[in-house]
């Protein structure tokens, strides 16, 4: 469980494999997914025509072991419905859904309960704490549901309490804690069952910005320490970019673009996404791997060497200091170079929009 | 911004309604000058207690008044004590069946204030007593003497009465000395407070159908006597004044001629309607016939009265005023 | 013999949330249950106090064996009340109070009702039906909207069914009385509500008055009213107004207090005078609550109008009351159905008016805006500041009112000429025989001899012998001072000093009135009725909250149970439970159950959805979700249900007296029917005291925020 070094996109089996998933609310919802003509309608048209709302429409993706998979979109885009479909808190209308190769939609009640108890735990936007229990008992609640004995579960809960930095607050009631502390309790409760996947449903959107930042750091730290697979729902782009290994951007129930933060910022799939990422400080997201160009002449011989994962903002510093280009190298090979004009065009956003532009990594391979 | 039109339309509506109201009020005022101005009332209000016998009286009287004499009759349901207040205040014109349950009010209004006058006998004899069902009396003839009642405590025991025998009591407004009788004769019985006549009737109906033993306050005339057979338990004989004061009562109940009472003003100025009601007099059998049509067969009161009137013309012809 | 009941009462307070003994030190010998209990109690002083008081009760009951309130400590209220009674009877024709005030009240009340009856007669049945339908249509928003048409159709249906049932005349009488009573009650409630809403002092002063008005059994004050206002319509009207005004007042006050402070601030900042503020800001902002209050007031008026038939007010209550004397359930039910229909009519009409109001405050409904809500997603954010389509409302408002007025005028002019004042007799259909057959079948088949479970009569006997009798005897065996201590301890545990003082004072007053033994009898019945109601109510309520289909089926049933006059089901209840205390308890359970079910269902349903979802996401079973999340979270609602249950059960004490409940109930009835103020009023006061006592002990204290 603690191995972090899964190569992303490798041939290992995905934790979640989602194919053509639909969730439609409304009368006779099951007819919508199969109907190609209805599937083409916009959300408003569909509602007007059928009285149904497609909260999730035809969504497919894989979540790989150890990655942080972020689903982001504005409110009403269907992301919260999607995450609930993963453990069938909301029953999907159609499509397939596998966890570690096992068909979730085919699970019977007890198997599903098993899944929820041991394999996936969720953190909620509004915490969902029980006001009549102490903090410690709240954390232990998941274990209590599993039927663990009182002593054992309390000990485990104490451990989790320390892990989220709330030692000594175990005897309080949730109502006596601040919002940030409450969400730490929610996090500890999810961690206590030692799940394979953590599902976060906009966990920090009810918190103040500063506390939100703290909590994001906490998640980053946890992920670094434990390498647990996470599915993270958010409507906050900066949060998505900060946390996500890959991001699925949703709109009106469908996935508009799926890719690394860099891909999304550098190569938005359509105008909607472009609009979305317009204000992102690009130099902080885009790496040299994308910004570099092939070396010309003797450029490959001189200049400082930076790894391709260096972000543009750091390269700017090097270029500014030396006044000349920087080489991008990996394992002793030079992949390409960046000069100040190249970097400036990244900052100015002139490099994006050409989705078909050859990728640096391919162009400069070995 | 939509408040103003709502208000104005409300005012308009109320205004129109008010107009209509006042028009109608003016219209109805004309013919509703009730109870005894001048030569004969066109409208009579009869106060009726909740039991069926009294309803039979009123229904028959109303039927004949309305059909033969063109007098409108308003029948108002109220218990004896309230009915006397109504007679006193002129809210009601007549009571046709009084069991003497409120002697104090009777005295106050009839003797002192002279706002209520006696209206003579109804012709029906009322009798109250302690009764057991016939099927029980047949098997245990000794139960019919009150002195032996303590031997039957076990038969009459219920969960309500605990280790005593249960005596099914009367509705609260009815004349009873049961509490004192039980105490003064050292009977090991507890009164079940039935709370209403309906409750008592239903309970007796239920017990009778199940053929269970019971001891109850009971009376005649009573429409249910046509359906069930009851036998009276002998109590010490009634003598004049033996139930005064009530706490010392040891004797049984009197047999009484049920009385009519009228509002004094109505009796004097009620004209033909008043004369008719004064003449109104029928037998226990007549009343029971109508009562069991109403209660036993579930006929509407008007229908029962009409049916009786059709068959007994000789009886009611005598009540009509001789003009 | 009294032991079982006492033990039962001992256990209740000292039982903390069921968890096994704490096992933090598994090495140590598990402490005995007694020691664990003691440790637990020591940790919670109020529980300790209650436990000690309970022990005291137990011990003292065994030592003394009988503990009625000493006769020396009672106050004779009978004599002054008898004097008052006599004075009223003596002076009602001559005293100025009657001649110049009360007489006018009576006359005006009577005139108003008579005029309305006259109007209805003038309109004829065609006119009344048309007018009522049009009114309902207007209340529903007029035009061709579905709601307006639905409301109008309801009204039309109600009038026609009432006619077919042969209940036209009494229904018109009831409607007339209702209209006047509702108008008076709403006006009084509005004024009191404004006073309570604007002034804290008024609020504090009026709160207990409202409580008293609602808990005091109407039978207890109907009698003085008969003496004050004369029998018939006037006293019925006054009693109804008293009973029905509190909800209007409470909700008006609530609405005034709950108004958006920003809007009030804005109005103040514009320099509005207090009167302007009330008229332009506070009252309009409280409209929704006021309409809800009106709705409740109407319902309470309706139930009271039936009771008031005892003093000769006529109408449908009269029909029911007379049917009772004939043990004719079918006839009573026919009138009962008419009452329920009138209730449905008035409820739907006011509800439609309320919905229209809400709509005009928010936005015009468009299919696009409504669809997502139907689709089960969250409703769109609705701004309270969107402009309503006022222009159309205005256009629609005027002609319809004018048309209505014209229609009324034309109909009342034509009505008599149509020759149809009353519903034609040949168009009626008597359901009585069918109902009676059905009732008889139910009575026969459920009463006894049902295999395995034994039937209702057997249960009634079992409960009476096993619970009621021991509980009553136990209460009577307990010394009065020990009960006072127990009540004070319970009060302290629930609401500290204030509750302890009020509760024990209430118990004390009962003793002083000399009604100790009877009150203990009534108390035992109330407790048993309460426990049965709560057990059933919680179970059904939870079920309804979890299974939407159950709730849909239940709703009309609950509506009927709440609006059906209790007199109607007294006879079947007797057939099923036999005359006695259990019959009264059964009637009370039928009456109180709907409220408990509703509050429970709502509380369970409204418990924080995030917490429930969290539990589901962790794989909690249905049972775990219910016991660990939904019920604990609904705790406040459950407490409210208990509290409402207490108040409603107490309101049934008098009705229970009519089917053999005895005790305080029968005293009130006897007082009324014998015209004995000195018997009825103290018993009524004792019922109020029991109400205060139980209310304080079940009211969750505001300080309890741990």
Automatic annotation (TrEMBL), chain A:
Record-given protein name: Glycine betaine/L-proline ABC transporter ATP-binding protein
Gene3D superfamilies linked to this entry: P-loop containing nucleotide triphosphate hydrolases
Taxonomic classification: Bacteria, Bacillati, Actinomycetota, Actinomycetes, Kitasatosporales
Family annotation (SMART domains): AAA (SM00382)
SUPFAM superfamilies: P-loop containing nucleoside triphosphate hydrolases
NCBIfam families: proV (TIGR01186)
Organism of derivation: Streptomyces chumphonensis
Domain ABC transporter positions: 41-277
GO BP terms: glycine betaine transport; response to osmotic stress
Stored PANTHER family: GLYCINE BETAINE/PROLINE BETAINE TRANSPORT SYSTEM ATP-BINDING PROTEIN PROV, GLYCINE BETAINE_PROLINE BETAINE TRANSPORT SYSTEM ATP-BINDING PROTEIN PROV
Source species, domain of life: Bacteria
A Pfam entry, by short name: ABC_tran
Family: Belongs to the ABC transporter superfamily.
Keyword Nucleotide-binding: yes
Gene Ontology CC: one annotated term: membrane
Molecular function, one GO term: ATP hydrolysis activity
Keywords, comma-separated and alphabetical: ATP-binding, CBS domain, Nucleotide-binding, Transport
From TrEMBL, chain B:
The organism of origin for this protein: Streptomyces chumphonensis
One Gene Ontology molecular-function label: transmembrane transporter activity
A UniProt-annotated Pfam family: OpuAC
Domain ABC-type glycine betaine transport system substrate-binding: 42-310
Entry superkingdom: Bacteria
SUPFAM superfamilies in the record: Periplasmic binding protein-like II
Keywords: Signal
Protein name: Glycine/betaine ABC transporter substrate-binding protein
TrEMBL record, chain C:
Phylogenetic lineage: Bacteria, Bacillati, Actinomycetota, Actinomycetes, Kitasatosporales
Its membrane topology: Multi-pass membrane protein
Keywords: Cell membrane, Membrane, Transmembrane, Transmembrane helix, Transport
Name under which the protein is recorded: ABC transporter permease subunit
GO MF annotation list: amine transmembrane transporter activity; carnitine transmembrane transporter activity
Pfam families noted in UniProt: BPD_transp_1
Domain of life: Bacteria
Region (Disordered): 1-31, 356-376
Record field: transmembrane: 47-69, 116-139, 151-168, 174-198, 219-245, 297-317, 329-346, 477-494, 500-517, 526-547, 567-597, 645-666, 678-697
Listed GO CC annotations: ATP-binding cassette (ABC) transporter complex
GO biological process assignments: choline transport; glycine betaine transport
Record bears the keyword Transport: yes
């Amino acid at each position: 469980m603690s191995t972090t070094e899964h190569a992303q996109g490798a041939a290992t089996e995905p934790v979640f494999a989602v194919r053509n998933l639909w969730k439609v609310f409304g009368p006779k919802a099951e007819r919508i997914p199969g109907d190609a003509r209805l599937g083409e309608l916009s959300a408003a048209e569909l509602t007007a025509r059928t009285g149904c709302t497609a909260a999730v429409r035809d969504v497919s993706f894989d979540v790989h072991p150890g990655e942080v998979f972020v689903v982001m979109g504005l409110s009403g885009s269907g992301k919260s419905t999607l995450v609930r479909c993963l453990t069938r808190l909301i029953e999907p209308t159609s499509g397939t859904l596998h966890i570690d190769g096992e068909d979730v939609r085919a699970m019977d009640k007890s198997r599903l309960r098993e899944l929820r108890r041991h394999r996936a735990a969720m953190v909620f936007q509004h915490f969902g704490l029980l006001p009549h229990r102490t903090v410690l008992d709240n954390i232990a609640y998941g274990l209590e549901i599993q039927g663990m004995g009182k002593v054992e579960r309390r000990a485990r809960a104490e451990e989790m309490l320390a892990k989220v930095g709330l030692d000594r607050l175990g005897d309080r009631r949730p109502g006596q804690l601040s919002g940030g502390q409450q969400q730490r309790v929610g996090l500890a409760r999810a961690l206590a069952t030692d799940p394979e996947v953590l599902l976060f449903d906009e966990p920090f959107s009810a918190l103040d910005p500063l506390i939100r930042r703290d909590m994001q750091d906490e998640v980053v730290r946890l992920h670094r320490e434990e390498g647990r697979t996470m599915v993270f729902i958010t409507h906050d782009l900066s949060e998505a970019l900060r946390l996500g290994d890959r991001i699925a951007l949703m709109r009106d129930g469908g996935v508009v673009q799926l890719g690394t933060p860099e891909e999304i910022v550098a190569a938005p799939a359509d105008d909607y996404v472009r609009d979305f990422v317009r204000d992102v400080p690009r130099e902080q997201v885009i790496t040299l791997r994308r910004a570099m160009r092939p070396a010309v002449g003797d450029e490959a011989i001189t200049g400082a060497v930076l790894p391709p994962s260096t972000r543009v903002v750091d390269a700017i510093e090097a270029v500014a200091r030396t006044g000349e280009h920087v080489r991008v190298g990996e394992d002793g090979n030079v992949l390409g170079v960046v000069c100040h004009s190249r970097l400036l065009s990244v900052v100015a956003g002139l490099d994006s929009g050409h989705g078909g532009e050859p990728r640096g990594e391919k162009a400069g391979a070995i | 911004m939509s408040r103003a039109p709502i208000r104005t339309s409300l005012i308009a509506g109320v205004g129109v309604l008010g107009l209509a109201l006042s028009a109608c009020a003016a219209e109805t005022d004309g013919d509703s000058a009730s109870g005894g101005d001048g030569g004969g009332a066109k409208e009579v209000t009869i106060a009726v207690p909740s039991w069926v016998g009294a309803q039979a009286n009123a229904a028959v009287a109303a039927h004949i008044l309305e059909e033969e004499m063109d007098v409108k009759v308003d029948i108002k349901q109220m218990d004896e004590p309230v009915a006397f207040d109504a007679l006193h205040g002129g809210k009601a014109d007549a009571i046709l069946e009084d069991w003497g349950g409120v002697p104090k009010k009777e005295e106050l209004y009839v003797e002192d204030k002279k706002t209520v006058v006696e209206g003579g006998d109804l012709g029906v004899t009322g009798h109250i007593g302690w009764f057991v069902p016939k099927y029980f009396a047949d098997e245990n003839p000794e139960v019919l003497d009150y002195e032996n009642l303590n031997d039957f405590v076990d038969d009459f025991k219920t969960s309500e009465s605990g280790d005593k025998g249960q005596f099914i009591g009367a509705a609260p407004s009815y004349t009873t000395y049961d509490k004192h009788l039980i105490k003064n004769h050292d009977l090991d019985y507890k009164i079940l407070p039935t709370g209403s006549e309906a409750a008592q009737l239903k309970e007796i109906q239920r017990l009778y159908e199940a053929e269970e033993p019971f001891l109850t306050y009971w009376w005649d005339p009573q429409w249910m006597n046509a359906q069930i057979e009851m036998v009276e338990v002998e109590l010490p004989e009634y003598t004049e004044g033996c139930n005064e004061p009530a706490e010392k009562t040891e004797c049984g109940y009197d047999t009484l001629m049920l009385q009519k009472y009228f509002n004094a003003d109505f009796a004097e100025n009620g004209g033909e309607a008043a004369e008719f009601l004064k003449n109104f007099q029928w037998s226990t059998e007549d009343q029971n016939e109508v009562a069991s049509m109403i209660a036993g067969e579930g006929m509407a009161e008007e229908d029962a009265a009409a049916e009786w009137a059709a068959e007994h013309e000789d009886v009611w012809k005598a009540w009509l005023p001789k003009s | 013999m009294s032991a079982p009941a006492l033990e039962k009462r001992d256990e209740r307070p000292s039982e903390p949330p069921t968890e096994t003994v704490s096992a933090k030190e598994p090495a140590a010998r598990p402490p005995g249950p007694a020691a664990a209990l003691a440790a637990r109690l020591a940790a919670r002083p109020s529980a300790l106090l209650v436990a000690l008081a309970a022990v005291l009760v137990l011990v003292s009951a065994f030592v003394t064996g009988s503990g009625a309130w000493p006769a020396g400590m009672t106050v004779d209220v009978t004599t002054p009340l008898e004097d008052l009674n006599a004075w009223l009877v003596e002076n009602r024709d001559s005293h100025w109070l009657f001649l110049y005030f009360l007489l006018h009240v009576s006359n005006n009340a009577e005139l108003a009702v008579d005029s309305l009856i006259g109007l209805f007669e003038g309109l004829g049945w065609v006119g009344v039906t048309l007018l009522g339908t049009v009114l309902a249509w207007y209340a529903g928003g007029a035009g061709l909207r579905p709601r307006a048409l639905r409301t109008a159709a309801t009204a039309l249906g109600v009038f026609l069914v009432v006619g077919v049932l042969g209940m036209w005349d009494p229904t018109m009488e009831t409607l007339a009385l209702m209209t006047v009573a509702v108008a008076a009650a709403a006006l009084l409630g509005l004024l009191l509500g404004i006073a309570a809403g604007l002034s804290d002092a008024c609020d504090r002063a009026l709160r207990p008055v409202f409580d008293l008005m609602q808990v005091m059994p109407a039978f207890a004050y109907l009698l003085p009213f008969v003496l004050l206002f004369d029998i018939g319509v006037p006293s019925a009207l006054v009693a109804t107004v008293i009973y029905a005004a509190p909800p209007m007042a409470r909700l008006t006050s609530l609405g005034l207090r709950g108004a958006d402070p920003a809007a009030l601030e804005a109005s103040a900042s514009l320099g509005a005078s207090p009167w302007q503020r009330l008229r332009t800001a506070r009252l309009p902002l409280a409209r929704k609550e006021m309409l809800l209050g009106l709705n409740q007031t109407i319902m309470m008026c309706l139930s009271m109008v039936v009771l008031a038939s005892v003093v000769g007010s006529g109408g449908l209550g009269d029909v029911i009351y007379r049917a009772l004397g004939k043990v004719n359930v079918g006839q009573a039910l026919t009138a009962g159905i008419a009452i329920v229909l009138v209730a449905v009519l008035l409820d739907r009409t006011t509800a439609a008016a309320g919905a229209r109001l809400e709509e005009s405050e928010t936005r015009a409904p468009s299919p696009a805006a409504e669809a997502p809500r139907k689709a089960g997603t969250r409703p769109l954010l609705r701004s309270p500041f969107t402009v309503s389509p006022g222009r159309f409302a205005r256009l629609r408002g005027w002609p319809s009112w004018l048309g209505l007025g014209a229609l009324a005028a034309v109909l009342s002019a034509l009505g008599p000429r149509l020759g149809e004042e009353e519903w034609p007799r040949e168009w009626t259909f008597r359901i009585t025989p069918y109902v009676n057959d059905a009732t008889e079948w139910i009575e026969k088949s459920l009463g006894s001899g049902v295999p395995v479970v034994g039937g209702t009569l057997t249960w009634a006997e079992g409960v009476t012998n096993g619970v009621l009798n021991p509980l009553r005897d136990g209460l009577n065996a307990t010394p009065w001072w020990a009960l006072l201590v127990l009540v004070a301890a319970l009060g302290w545990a629930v609401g500290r000093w204030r509750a302890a003082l009020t509760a024990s004072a209430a118990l004390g007053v009962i003793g002083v009135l000399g009604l100790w033994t009877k009150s203990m009898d009534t108390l035992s019945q109330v407790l048993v009725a309460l426990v049965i109601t709560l057990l059933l109510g919680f179970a059904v309520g939870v079920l309804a909250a979890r299974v939407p289909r159950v709730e849909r089926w239940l709703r009309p049933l609950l509506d009927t149970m709440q609006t059906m006059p209790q007199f109607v089901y007294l006879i079947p209840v007797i057939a099923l439970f036999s005359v006695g205390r259990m019959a009264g308890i059964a009637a009370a359970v039928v009456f109180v159950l709907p409220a408990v079910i509703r509050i429970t269902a709502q509380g369970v349903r409204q418990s924080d959805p995030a917490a429930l979802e969290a539990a589901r996401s962790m794989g909690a079973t249905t049972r775990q979700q219910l016991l660990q999340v939904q019920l604990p979270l609904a705790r406040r609602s459950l407490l409210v249900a208990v509290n409402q249950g207490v108040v409603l059960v107490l309101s049934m004490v008098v009705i229970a007296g009519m089917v053999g409940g005895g005790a305080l109930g029968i005293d009130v009835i006897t007082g009324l029917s014998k015209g004995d103020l000195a018997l009825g009023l103290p018993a009524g006061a004792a019922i109020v005291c029991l109400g205060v006592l139980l209310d304080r002990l079940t009211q969750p204290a505001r300080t309890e925020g741990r």
